[in-house]
Amino acid sequence: MIKINETLVIPAPIEVVWAEIADVTSVVSCIPGAELGAAQPDGSFEGTLGVAFGPMHVKFEGNVRVELSHDDHSGVITASARDRRGAARLRGHATLGLSTAPDRHTSLTLIAEIQVAGKMAPQIEGGANFVTGRLSTEFLERITERVAGVRTDGYAKWWQRVAGAFGRLWRSVLSAGRP
Q1: The pTM is what?
Q2: Burial of 107 by CB count in 10 Å (0-12 exposed, 13-18 middle, 19+ buried)?
Q3: DSSP codes joined into one string, 104-165
């Protein structure tokens, strides 16, 4: 199982960030490798997500449902997908929430659990920390540019990656029960 618990600080007011998050098409365009397909009669969407795990590239196709609560700036995302070759299947559930941060910035918290099955599951789960870190960093860059018109500089991007990698490494060490 892949667990994600990320908090990203976006340099824009909560109302501006929420307007972007509430637009499913817009937010998907901020996720590297993701494409939104047709809306389904039940309100869900078809979609794809291409991810590289080292030299291995996997393209997942599936269905995603987004339920938003405008009152408290939160949402629930459920998804299921399988890779085109049939070697992996994903089923996930995530919650997201926005809160006001200092300096009129917004904190976006994402908590997710993704179950992976199939013969590629060990490779996918093994590379998940680095992949989710990279996706989080690129998502933050893209949404920040959209809502605040700000591009992060090279040093800031590098530092976010390093800090994120150490944080994920430390969490994995603690969850394994090692000192």
Answers
A1: 0.74
A2: middle
A3: GEEEEEEEEEEEEESTTHHHHHHHHHHHHHHHHHHHHHHHHHHHH--PPPHHHHHHHHHHHH
Q: Who's near 99: CB < 8 A, 6+ residues apart?
A: 14, 73, 106, 107, 109
Number of residues that this document lists for the chain: 179
Q: Which residue has the tokens 């099955």?
A: 117
CA distance 146 to 18: 12
Cα separation, 71 vs 63, in Å, equals 26
C-alpha–C-alpha distance, residues 107 and 81, integer Å? 28
pLDDT digits over 1-37, tens only? 888 888 888 888 999 999 988 988 888 888 888 898 9
CA 169 – CA 167 distance, rounded (Å):
5
Count the helix, strand and coil residues of the chain and give each as a percent rounded to the nearest 5.
35, 40, 20
In the chain, count H helices and then E strands. 4, 7
